[in-house]
Amino acid sequence: MTEExxxxxxxxxxxxxxxxPKRIVNKMLDIxxxxxxxxxxxxxxxxxxxxxxxxxxxxxxxxxxxxxGKYNNDLVQYENYSLLALTTLYGIELLEDNxxxxxxxxxxxxxxxxxxxxxxxxGDMKQKVxxxxxxxxxxxxxxxxxLTRKAVDGASLVFSDWKPINLRKTTKNIKxxxxxxxxxxxxxxxxxxxxxxxxxxxxxxxxxxxxxFLDEELETQEDEKEMQYIxxxxxxxxxxxxxxx
Length: 245
What we know:
Blueprint: H1 9-15, H2 22-29, H3 32-38, E1 45-47, H4 54-70, H5 75-86, E2 89-93, H6 96-121, H7 127-140, E3 141-145, E4 150-151, E5 158-165, E6 175-182, H8 183-187, E7 227-229, E8 232-233, E9 242-244
Parallel strand pairs: 1-2, 2-3
Antiparallel strand pairs: 3-4, 5-6, 6-8, 7-9
Helix pairs in contact: 2-4, 4-5, 4-6, 5-6, 6-7
């Protein structure tokens, strides 16, 4: 089967959209320095033109193999460290359909590996683990322009840093604290208080959660209150627990 590297000539002409073949992706990831980074569970990657996720999915595949080999004494340990691997992968994609496909491709890769470990450990798939995986992926993939550092609606691109708390070799249940940064703040190496949450201006829509169509209810934020994220178990990040500052 021939691998498709373009969708149509118009998209190539307008956006320069050309997909990287898998063999080239793997060849690039096998460059010694990059290969070593892929094998480090906490090394962070940002793909500025994510497309449908060819590089991010391939890196996730490699990281999940590390998890299944080194952090897999039981299902709980695998669940925690596989989610930790997800928190290190970020992407920006200009075209909405590509961004959505990237998110779904990453989730499918995570789900397939999780299912394998469910069968290996003869365990049960936990909905909270899947919900947390969806939340992490959807927040880590931004639909916008890397060069302008803006989302497609003109708002600032916002990403979440997922900082592990007291992570040690013996840690089984990982806790993280989420802190939000704009892409401009990341560029400027801005230091912030752990847990800081960014409030979206009232005249700008919030960044789209691509998985929001799966939710039965929409949550609302009280703009008049300054809030921060509290440390939580990594399997509970989907709850987005906050407290007033």
